[in-house]
Design brief:
- By secondary structure, the protein is mostly beta strands.
- It has one helix at residues 24-30, and strands spanning 14-19, 45-50, 52-55, 62-65, 68-72, 75-78.
- A hairpin with a 2-residue loop joins strand 4 and strand 5.
- The longest helix has 7 residues, at 24-30.
- The radius of gyration is 15 Å and the shape is globular.
- The two termini are 20 Å apart.
């Protein structure tokens, strides 16, 4: 899946993809386009680049980080430069 097609693991920036108010039918229609990055053409899907992100909600919401449950809002997410060494 190409959720954030322009993301790079070595650029020191978070690529954030936010889904706006999508109904179930619209979500079902756009979901397959995630495989090639086509979902970014939807005006209700927004992308941003940042070094720090704060996520909050009026109610405590569960969150997935890299596909793993265990976190919840509020979340503070930040880039730690050179914290991950990759061998390619």
């Amino acid at each position: 899946m190409r959720i954030a097609p322009g993301a790079r693991p070595d650029d020191g920036v978070l690529d954030v993809v936010r889904l706006g108010a999508l109904g179930r039918a619209e979500l079902a229609r756009w979901l397959p386009t995630v495989y090639w990055g086509g979902h970014l053409a939807n005006p209700r899907i927004e992308t941003r680049r940042a070094t720090r992100v704060h996520v909050d909600a009026s109610a405590r919401l569960p969150a997935q980080l890299d596909g793993e449950l265990g976190a919840h809002t509020p979340l503070d997410i930040a880039i730690l430069p050179a914290a991950l060494r990759l061998l390619v």
